[in-house]
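FORM 7B: Structural annotation worksheet

SECTION A. Query
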Amino acid sequence: MNTIIRLSVAALVLTGVVATTQANASSKTTIQPKISAMPVPSCAPDGQNSCGL
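SECTION B. Predicted structure
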């Protein structure tokens, strides 16, 4: 009975270590945005009725 409990605890510890290692490895990678956050003007900048962008 003690052996089963010890094996279960060891399996949980190993699972936690693997999960922590994978979480740390994936948190170091950053995703660069492909689209700019700047607004795209939809009217001519030199027109008299321009929207003022």
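SECTION C. Observations
The longest helix spans residues 2-27. The radius of gyration is 28 Å.

SECTION D. Sign-off
Analyst initials: ____
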